[in-house]
C-alpha cells in the first residue's frame, strides 16, 4: 500500500470503532429478524441514532490507550464502542425525560416513531405514545449492550472487571446528574453556579471524559497514578466542555453547532450563564425573557445582549478557560508520559477552541 | 438448632436472594449518599419497588439449580437476584410506556415521585414529568445492575458467559414483546390469538420462566439436553401463566390478586380472551363496552358475562391447561432427573391452580 493511502492514526481508530458497532448492529438486526420486521426497524433506528456522531468517547478511550503504549486496537475499539452505546442510551432516555422529539434539528427515536404513527393516521396522543415507547425500549437495549460490549471485548478477567467498574461509575454518576437536572428544571429558584457545575459534571463529564480516559489507561495497563490523573484531567476538561456547550447553546453559530441558539433560552435552561446572571442587575429583564416558549428572535437577541453586558458570558468563558487550564496542568505531572501529554494537550485546546 | 426451627428449603432460598438484594441496595445507597439525599431516596424507592414481590424468577433459578444438584446457594442467589432486578427494570419502564402511575393499587416509582412533587405544589404537568423522569432513571439503574449482579456472582468464566447470554436473550425477547405490545395497543384491529400468545411469550415468559430455569440449570452444570428441555418447559408454562394472568385480570378476585378486575376491561387490553371473542356473535356488544375508561361496574359485569357466554373464558382456560400439560409432558422426558420433575410439577399445577 502506498504510504499516501495510509489512513491517519485518528482515521484508523475511528474505523475500528465503526467496525465494532457495525458488527454489533448487523448481529442484532439478524437476531431481531426472527421477531418480525418491526423489531429490525427498531434496531435500524437505534443504529442511525448511534452513528453519525463525533465518536467523541471512543476517541478518548483510544487516545489514552495508544498513547500509553496499548497495541490491541480491536479490544480498545470494543471499549470505545461500549461508551458510544452508553452515550446513545443516555441521550435517548434523556430525550424521553425531556419529552423531546427532535435532537439537533433531526427527529430522534421518539420523533421518527411519532411521525410514522401520525402519518399512519393515529391521533397525536397515540403517535407520541408510540414514539416514547420506542425510545424507552431502544434506550434499554443500548444500555444493556454497552455493558455487553465490554464483556465481549475479549479482555481478560481482572482488567475486564476494572473496566466494568469504570462503566458502572459512569452510569451511576450520570443517573445522579440526570436526577439533579430534573430537580433543577422543576425548582422555581435558579441553582447556584457550583451546583450547576456539579450536575453537569455528573450528568455528562464522567461518562464522556473521565470514564473513557480511565478505561483507555486501564486497558493499556497504566499505573494507578496515571489512571487517577487522567480521571482528574477528564473531570476538569469535561466541566470546561460543558461550560462551552452551554455558551454555544446561546451564542454559537447554528451552522457550526447544528444546534439552535434559541432553544436553551426558550426553555430557560439552567446553566452557569443564567446562574451568574441572577446575581446581576440585568436579571429582572433577563428573567422576563427566558423560559418563554414563544420567545422571538428579537427577544433572544436582547437576552444575549444582556447576558453579555451583565458579564455572564465573559464569566462563563473565563471559567471554561480556568477548568481547561487546570486540566492541562494535570498533564504536566511527571508520571504522565510525554506521548500522552502530546495527544491530550490538543484536546484541552479544542474544547476552548469551540468558542474562539 | 432445633430441627423445628430449620427453615424450609424454600424459605432458605428466599432469604439468600433477599440477602443479596439487601447487600446490593445497601451498597448502592451508601454510594449514592456522596451525590446527595435525593439520590439516596431514588435508590430507596427502587428498593421498595423490588422487594415485597413473590420473588418468582429467583425461585425458578434456585429450584432448577438445587434440583439439579447445585450446592453453591450464594452464587445461585446472585443469579436469582439478577433476574429479579431485570424484572423490576422491565416493569418500571413498562409503566413509563403505559403512562401508569399505580401498580397493583400502590403508587409505583412514577406515582410516588409525581405525588411528592404535587404535594410540594407543582403543577400536574410538572409533577408527572418528575415522576416519569425518576422512573426512567431508576429503571436504567435496575437494568444495568441486573447484568452487574451476574458479573459479581463469582461464577467462573465460561459459565458466567453463558449466563450472560441467557440474560441477553431474555432482555432481547422482552424488548421485542414490548414493541409488539405497543403496536397492538395502537392498532385498531384486534390481533389474532396466536399473535397475542407470541407477544406475551416474548414480553414476559422468556425472562420469567425460560431464562431463570435455564440459568439455574447452566449454573448447576446440567447437560445441554436438560437446559434445552427446561427452556421448552418454561416456554409452555410461561404462556399458560400469561393466559391465567389475563383471565385473572378480568375474572379474578381482587382480594386475592391485588389487581383490579376492571382495569383490563377499561383499557381494552388485547388478550386471548378478547381475540377469541372477536370471532363470536357476542363481539359487537363486547366491543361497545371494553376500552372505555369510564366503564361502570355494571358494564364490566355485563362484559364478563358476555366473555363467558361467548366461550372466550372457557377457551382461554382450556388453552392455559393445554400449555401447562404440554409443559408437564416435557418433564416426563427421560433425561430429566426425578428430583427436578418432583420440584417442577407443582409449578405447573400452581399456574393452573390460580384460576381454579
Structural account:
- Two copies of one chain form a homodimer.
- The first copy, chain A, has two domains: 1-220, Farnesyl Diphosphate Synthase (Orthogonal Bundle); 223-356, Farnesyl Diphosphate Synthase.
- Chain A has 16 helices and two strands.
- Chain A has helices spanning 9-33, 37-48, 56-67, 73-97, 109-119, 124-151, 157-186, 193-219, 224-251, 254-257, 263-267, 272-277, 283-289, 297-309, 312-331, 338-353; strands at 102-103, 106-107.
- In chain A, β1 and β2 (106-107) form a beta hairpin.
- In chain A, α1 packs antiparallel against α2 (37-48) and α9 (224-251) runs parallel beside α16 (338-353).
- The longest helix of chain A has 30 residues, at 157-186.
- Mean pLDDT of chain A is 91; it is low at 1-6.
Q: What portion of residues of chain A is helical?
A: over 70%
Provide mean pLDDT of chain A, rounded: 91
The CATH homology group name of the largest domain in chain A: Farnesyl Diphosphate Synthase
- CATH architecture title of the largest domain in chain A: Orthogonal Bundle
Assembly level: homodimer
- Count of strand segments of chain A: 2
Shape of chain A: flat
Top-tier CATH class of the largest domain in chain A: Mainly Alpha
Percentage of β-strand residues of chain A: under 5%
The tally of structural domains of chain A comes to 2
What does the largest sheet of chain A look like?
2 strands, antiparallel
Quickly count the helices of chain A. Answer: 16
Rg for CA atoms of chain A:
21 Å
Q: Look at the helices and sheets of chain A and give the structural class.
A: mainly alpha
**How far is the N terminus from the C terminus of chain A?**
39 Å
Q: What is the string of helix and strand elements of chain A?
A: HHHHEEHHHHHHHHHHHH
Largest inter-chain contact set: A-B, 47 and 47 residues
User: What is CATH's topology name of the largest domain in chain A?
Assistant: Farnesyl Diphosphate Synthase
Strands side by side in the biggest sheet of chain A:
1-2
Which spans of chain A have pLDDT < 50 for at least 5 consecutive residues?
1-6
Amino acid at each position: 500500500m502506498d504510504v499516501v493511502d495510509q489512513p491517519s492514526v485518528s482515521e484508523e481508530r475511528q474505523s475500528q470503532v465503526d467496525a465494532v458497532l457495525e458488527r454489533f448492529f448487523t448481529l442484532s438486526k439478524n437476531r431481531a429478524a426472527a421477531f418480525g420486521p418491526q423489531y429490525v426497524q427498531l434496531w435500524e433506528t437505534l443504529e442511525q441514532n448511534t452513528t453519525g456522531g463525533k465518536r467523541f468517547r471512543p476517541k478518548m478511550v483510544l487516545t489514552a490507550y495508544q498513547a500509553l503504549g496499548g497495541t490491541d486496537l480491536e479490544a480498545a475499539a470494543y471499549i470505545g464502542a461500549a461508551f458510544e452505546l452508553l452515550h446513545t442510551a443516555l441521550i435517548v432516555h434523556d430525550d424521553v425525560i425531556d419529552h423531546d422529539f427532535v435532537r439537533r434539528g433531526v427527529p430522534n427515536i421518539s420523533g421518527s416513531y411519532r411521525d410514522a404513527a401520525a402519518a399512519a393516521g393515529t391521533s397525536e396522543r397515540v403517535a407520541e405514545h408510540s414514539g416514547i415507547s420506542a425510545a424507552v425500549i431502544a434506550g434499554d437495549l443500548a444500555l444493556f449492550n454497552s455493558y455487553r460490549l465490554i464483556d465481549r471485548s475479549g479482555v481478560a478477567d481482572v482488567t475486564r472487571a476494572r473496566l466494568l467498574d469504570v462503566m458502572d461509575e459512569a452510569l451511576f454518576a450520570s443517573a445522579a446528574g440526570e436526577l439533579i437536572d430534573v430537580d433543577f428544571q422543576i425548582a422555581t429558584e435558579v441553582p447556584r453556579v457550583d451546583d450547576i457545575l456539579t450536575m453537569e459534571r455528573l450528568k455528562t463529564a464522567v461518562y464522556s471524559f473521565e470514564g473513557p480516559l480511565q478505561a483507555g489507561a486501564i486497558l493499556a495497563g497504566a499505573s494507578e497514578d496515571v489512571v487517577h490523573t487522567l480521571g482528574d484531567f477528564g473531570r476538569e476538561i469535561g466541566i470546561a466542555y460543558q461550560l462551552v456547550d452551554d455558551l454555544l447553546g446561546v451564542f454559537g453559530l447554528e451552522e457550526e453547532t447544528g444546534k439552535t441558539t434559541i432553544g436553551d433560552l426558550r426553555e430557560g435552561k439552567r446553566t452557569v450563564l443564567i446562574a451568574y446572571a441572577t446575581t446581576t442587575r440585568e436579571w429582572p429583564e433577563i428573567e422576563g425573557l427566558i423560559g418563554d416558549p414563544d420567545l422571538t428572535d428579537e427577544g433572544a437577541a436582547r437576552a444575549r445582549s444582556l447576558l453579555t453586558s451583565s458579564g455572564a458570558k465573559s464569566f462563563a468563558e473565563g471559567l471554561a478557560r480556568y477548568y481547561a487550564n487546570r486540566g492541562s496542568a494535570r498533564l504536566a505531572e511527571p508520571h504522565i508520559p510525554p506521548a500522552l501529554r502530546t495527544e491530550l494537550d490538543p484536546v484541552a485546546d479544542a474544547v476552548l477552541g469551540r468558542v474562539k
